[in-house]
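Recall the central idea of this unit: under ordinary conditions, the amino acid sequence of a chain determines the structure it adopts. In this exercise we apply that idea directly, starting from the sequence alone.
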Amino acid sequence: MSKDDDAHTRSFHERLGRIQGGAPNTSGTTYVGPGSAPKQTSWRLRRALLTALLDILMSPLGLIAGIAAVLGARVAALKLFGSDGLYPLELDPPVTFMGIELALALIIMILLMQLLGLRRGLRRTAVFIGFLGAIVAEQALVDLAPPALSDHYPSEMISDAIVDY
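Accordingly, the structure predicted from this sequence is:
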C-alpha cells in the first residue's frame, strides 16, 4: 500500500469513529431508508435560465461585434497601410495585405469580446458567426452601397461593384 492509501484509510476510520461516537456526519446530511429525494435548489434553475436569457439577448451584439471587427479592420488597414495611408506598404502579392487585415480583424474581435463580455457560450459563437459572415459577405456589402463606401474601400472593389451595378 502506498502512503496515499494509508492516509485515506486512516481518515476514513477516524471519520467512521466520529460518526459512531455521535458526532455529526462531516460530509453532509445522510438520508436513510425510502423517502423523497432531496429537492434541487431553485437557485441553480434560476441561474441556468438567467444565463440562457443573457446569451439570447447578447447574441445580436456578438454578431454586430464580429461584423464590426472585419469592417473596422478593413478601414484601419487601408487608412494605415494603404497606398495613400499613414504608413504605406507596397506588398506583393496583394494577398499579404489581406493577411494584415485579417490579423487586425482578429485583434479587434478579441478586444471587443473582452470589452463587451462576449467570451463564453452562445455569445462567443455569435461573434465568430458574425466575423465569418462579414468576411464572406463583404463584397456583397460593397455591391449594395458602392458610393457610400468609396472612402473606406479600395478603388478596385468599388469599380468592380459599380460595373456590376
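The chain has six helices and no strands.
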